[in-house]
Amino acid sequence: MSDPSRAELAARPNCRVLVTTPNRPGAIAILQLHGHVVPILHAITGIDDWPLGRARFVPFDDIDEGIAVRLTNEIAQLMPHGGPRVVQRLIQRLTELGVDLGPAFEANPADVYPEAADQFEALALAGVARAASPLAIDLLLDQPRRWRTLSPLPSKGRGRGVGQISLSEEDLARSRRLNRLIEPPLVVVVGAANVGKSTLSNALLGRSMSITADLPGTTRDYTSGRIDLAGLVVNWHDTPGLRETVDPIERKAIDLARSLIERADLLIALTDHESAYPQLSRQPELRVFNKIDLLPSPPGRGAGGEGLLSISALHGTGLAELVTTVRDHLVPPADLTHPGPWLFDDRLVESC
Ligand SMILES: Nc1nc2c(ncn2[C@@H]2O[C@H](COP(=O)(O)OP(=O)(O)OP(=O)(O)O)[C@@H](O)[C@H]2O)c(=O)[nH]1
Ligand SMILES: [Mg+2]
C-alpha cells in the first residue's frame, strides 16, 4: 500500500494514538486512535470505507492482522496481537503516518474509554492499563462499585476531604501502599562483597542480571530489573558490595548504592557465614542470611541476630518464602482483602 505524501499528512487534522491495554505482553493490545481517524485506518489497513460500529478482521500493514473498528466519528480502535514487538512496530508505523503518540494517562479517561459506564469505571480502566502488577487488576476493577457507594457523603471527620467524600487516614495510608501495585516499588539488596547479592538477584529474575563470581567486587556497577514477586512487580536493584575501593567506577556505583538505600521502599541486608551485616545509614526492613547450604545446620529464624530469613540463593532454598515476605511487607494481604475504597488515581477527587 502506498505511503501518504508529506503534503497529504500535513493537510490532515491531528490524530493521536493511545495504548489502552496494560504495558506488558497480552493476548491482544488495544491502540485507540483519536481525531481524523479514517485516513489513518485507510493507510494502515488498505480499506477506505469505515462505517461506525462495524468491527472487521483486517491486515495492519505488513506488521500483523487483527480487529479494527471505528467507534465514533473521531475514535477508532486497532486490536492487534498483544506482543510488545507488534505494538511497538504498529506505533512506529502510525507515527510515520503523522499520528502523535499520546500518554493514555494524561488523556481524559472518559474519552479514552467511551465504553465505560461512568468516570469511576473509566479511571479504573486507565488504572488497569498502567498498573505494573497482576495483583492490581481485580482490585482495580472492583473500585468503581466501591466509589459509587461512597458518593455522596458529608465531608467531615479527620480524614482528607475528597470532593464530597471523606477518606479516613487509614484509607489514605492503605491507598499509598496499594499504589505500589501500579508504580513498582524500589527494592534494594545490599551487603558486603561476595555474600551472594548478584546470585540472589539473578535467581529471582530467572536470568542473568549481574555477573557473579567468587571474587569480591564482581559487581562494579549497580544493576536493576523488574521482577514479579508472586504478583507484585518491583524494581529490584542489585548493588556492588559495600567496601572501600580505589576503582573509580566501583566507587561511583557504591555512592549510588548509598543513595538508593535512602530511597528504597524495602531494603534487604544480605550476609553469609563469613561476613557481618553491613553498616547502613538506616535500618533494613529485612535481614537475610545466605549460603545456608555451606553450614552443617542452618541458623534458626532470628537466631543470634543471624538473619530473619535463611536462604541458599545458589540452590533456591528459602527463596519462595523470601518472595512472599517481601511482597507482603510492601503490600500487606490485609490491604488486598480490605473492602474499602482505594484512591488509585488522584483524578478520582475530581470525579465526585
Ligand atoms: N554455596 C553457595 N555459594 C553461593 C551462594 N550464593 C552465592 N554463592 C557464591 O558466592 C560467590 C559470590 O556470589 P555473588 O553473587 O557474585 O556475590 P555478590 O554479593 O554479588 O558479590 P560482589 O558483586 O562482589 O559484591 C559466587 O561464587 C557464588 O556462586 C549460596 O547460596 N551458596
Ligand atoms: Mg555482585
- Average of pLDDT: 83
Give a short account of the largest sheet: 6 strands, mixed
What number of structural domains do the residues give?
2
**Percent of residues in beta strands:** 15-25%
CATH topology of the largest domain: Rossmann fold
Each distinct ligand: guanosine-5'-triphosphate, magnesium ion
Identify the overall geometry: elongated
Low-confidence stretches: 153-163, 302-307
Number of continuous helical runs: 12
In which order are the strands of the major sheet placed? 4-5-6-3-1-8
Summarize the helix and strand pattern as letters. HEEEHEEEEHEHHHEEHEHEEHEEEHHH
Rounded to the nearest angstrom, the radius of gyration is 25 Å
CATH structural architecture of the largest domain? 3-Layer(aba) Sandwich
Number of strands: 16
Would you identify the CATH H-level superfamily of the largest domain?
Answer: P-loop containing nucleotide triphosphate hydrolases
Question: Would you mind describing this structure in some detail?
Answer:
- This protein has helices at 6-11, 37-45, 84-96, 109-112, 119-130, 136-150, 169-178, 197-205, 248-263, 319-330, 333-337, 348-351; strands at residues 15-19, 26-28, 31-35, 56-60, 64-70, 75-79, 81-82, 100-101, 160-162, 165-167, 186-191, 223-229, 232-238, 266-271, 286-289, 309-310.
- The chain has 352 residues and is an alpha/beta fold.
- The chain has two domains: 6-102, 2-Layer Sandwich (Gyrase A, domain 2), CATH 3.30.1360.120; 115-352, Rossmann fold.
- The longest helix is centred in the C-terminal third of the chain and has 16 residues, at 248-263.
- The protein binds guanosine-5'-triphosphate and magnesium ion.
- Magnesium ion (MG) is lined by residues 197-198, 210, 218-219.
